[in-house]
Amino acid sequence: MLSGIDLWADHGTHTFVPLLTGLWRGFLAPKPAVRWDEIPMWVAWQIVYCVYILIRASFSGFYPNPFLNVPVIGSAGLIGAVVGLVLGFVAIGLSLTALNRFAPSHDR
Question: Which among 68, 88, 64, 85 is positioned nearest to 77, based on CA atoms?
Fold first, then answer.
């Protein structure tokens, strides 16, 4: 269980930054069109991240994400986690792209 500065850093990274980014994007940022053909790139970045973490962890033994911790979750758990991550990003991408159709934009 995290405590002290570790808890604040974790919440900052996983709660405050995404929340503030979403608010900024929703109310202040310019709204470029989000296109359907961008979704594969969003997913590719997640796969690259997973591969990077697995390579790094194979040398250091440190897994920064519990859903990628192969010694604990096993190969089947890893495959399930990565498939879930990819499907989650595809769902988010499809949702944001669909919602973008209703947002006013200058560069569509």
Answer: 68
